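Dear Dr. L.,

I hope this message finds you well. Following up on our conversation about the binding site, I have prepared a predicted three-dimensional model of the protein together with coenzyme A. For your records, I am including the exact sequence and ligand specification that went into the calculation, followed by the structure tokens. Please feel free to forward this to your student if that is useful.
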Amino acid sequence: MVSIRIRKVSKRSLAGLQQPFEYDSDSHYKVTTQKTGDGWAINLNRRPFQKTFKKREVWPLVIFYKGSSEIYVAERGKKRCGVIQFEFEAWHKTVRIWDLYVSRDCHRTGVGSALMEKCKERARALGARRIILETQTSNSNAIDFYLDQGFDLVGMDLTNYTNEDAARNEVRLEMAYHIGNSKPAPSKNVENGKARTPKHRAKR
Ligand SMILES: CC(C)(COP(=O)(O)OP(=O)(O)OC[C@H]1O[C@@H](n2cnc3c(N)ncnc32)[C@H](O)[C@@H]1OP(=O)(O)O)[C@@H](O)C(=O)NCCC(=O)NCCS
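The resulting structure of the complex is given below.
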């Protein structure tokens, strides 16, 4: 397989680019909250969608509120197969990932991991203590990917997109990777306590 090249690109070269944000999902994390006598009970449980959840949106990649972000693309030969955009927020030593997209025909071939590796490398170089990102309870594939990358759940907003997010099973989650003390997430790549190295990873 052709190796993956990660290359920094200027925002000027991407100005006006409309980035499709698409995924299909067969499962989600059902959020339930309940006020108890002395607090709240909050649960997130993985459940199947009755009908495949299909997300189809398009967003401008370069936009003013992403400030002084850096953008890297993944290429295989001449084909662009993924992009990541992140920004260092010095005041709380945090790198925020604004965008991460891999073309459908490149999924599960290590492209997302290679882009995330670049982000982790930059975060360390910038002196960040963590990397943070927004995802949704409906995007269980992305959640699986982030868990595999050593991210964990750090927050949630029950009404970020609409006032019915919980009922719509699309709740905003914040996930973080803590630099220096992120322990490897429980991964399906570990069987019987022994690490399994998928073929595409061995080549990276
Ligand atoms: C999420 C996304 C970036 C993952 O990129 P990718 O290049 O497919 O990921 P990788 O090949 O590096 O996967 C690494 C590991 O993550 C996990 N993983 C990735 N995709 C997964 C999926 N669909 N289901 C379950 N686990 C998954 C696996 O453990 C995988 O290792 P394996 O393939 O050896 O089992 C990609 O699916 C994508 O762009 N999705 C659409 C856009 C999106 O949802 N972006 C995130 C917005 S929050």
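In brief: The first strand starts at residue 4 and ends at 9.

With kind regards,
A. P.
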